[in-house]
């Protein structure tokens, strides 16, 4: 399904702003969930829905009439905020939909399946992003999950968009892959209108060479995710559901039941 009216979550961020502009350029109707309309600074043809993405009621309003969602929100201030923002916004949106179907593009990060305990980090950003991916896969919505490499670390001639699967790069440095912010925005928005992108999970990096005009062949070459699982098709099985917090399992169950 190709959506027409897209809700952007994280629209005021460094990727969100570019994604909003790309969606307008591609002719979509754009709505942005923002916490402060006076600070949003988005183009005039963006419809603003003012609300707090950590709250379910914000999505009940913001999703009225929307048939697509692009998630690019992210927090790094504390473990609680990462849960509330990176994971919580996805959870709240899916709960607010109560089974109504929309087309989803979710941005997480390259290396997301490498657990935070393995990086020895205290803020569990990867783990919460991975849990948000699982909610999307379990929801029965058509989706594309984009795990970008390091933002804007690319050389000027490093523009050839490249999709990987299996999330096997775990250096936690630009060695894992780099990509321009503008290209991340393009891939998220292109995915919405591309049947071949449906139900895929990919790592996004740029290699030396020119950017492609049409991404459909790249999406078509991907293996789709299995319909009966919660992880990306080639992801390492290293994050057992039995180890997940009770509240996450409850969210998964509620979202599955609403499918
Ligand atoms: N940097 C990299 O190389 C890299 C690579 C892969 C993935 N990532 C991931 O990309 C994400 C960063 O993307 P970005 O650069 O676009 O982020 P950003 O510029 O920091 O934007 C974050 C967005 O989330 C919103 N947000 C954050 N905390 C919020 C809160 N408490 N309540 C409501 N909204 C909140 C912000 O809203 P406001 O404008 O209102 O604050 C903004 O729209 C991170 O999660 C990171 O893990 C980064």
TrEMBL record:
According to the record, the segments passing through the membrane are none
Q: Which InterPro entries match?
A: NAD(P)-bd_dom, NAD(P)-bd_dom_sf
Q: From what superkingdom does this record's organism come?
A: Bacteria
Which first-to-last residue range defines the signal peptide?
A: none
Q: Where is the NAD(P)-binding domain?
A: 10-192
For this entry, the protein name equals NAD-dependent dehydratase
Which organism's genome codes for this protein?
Bifidobacterium oedipodis
Source taxonomy lineage?
Bacteria, Bacillati, Actinomycetota, Actinomycetes, Bifidobacteriales
